[in-house]
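User: I'll paste a sequence; please echo it back and then give the predicted structure.

Assistant: Echoing your sequence first, then the prediction.
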Amino acid sequence: MSCGTVWSRYCRRSRSADPADQTAARALAGLDLAPADLVTLYDSIGDIVWADVGNGYFVDPVPDVLLRLKEYGAAGDGTGEEARGLFIGSNGGGLCYLTGPSGVVYRTRTASMDDPELDRVADDLRQFLELLEQSLTRFVANGEPGYL
């Protein structure tokens, strides 16, 4: 998928991927820790920063995701002892978003990334991005950013 298709609505509130981001996305693809749609997103979009929506919503740039992986390792993605995932962003209030090979997106219950307790927020990246968009729409309409 290119930025001109499924991800087009998110491009207007994000930074386009540069060559370094695209190289990092290819490196991420080789790790088998990320769903294919996350790699596709990172090949087109460098990051999403909505700092003005509530506490903010952030999908981190893939080089930051890889650096965090190198420094802290993969985290449990909530699907079992063997499954591992990546922290991909935050809600600006200290809670982080995590996804793994299954594609499900989770949010931590606390600001800690050490043995996080997780709540499922979306079945896949597409649904997560749609929820982000709904939060933006709600915030513009009435100042409420939603629950993400």
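The two ends are 25 Å apart (CA to CA). The chain has a mean pLDDT of 83.
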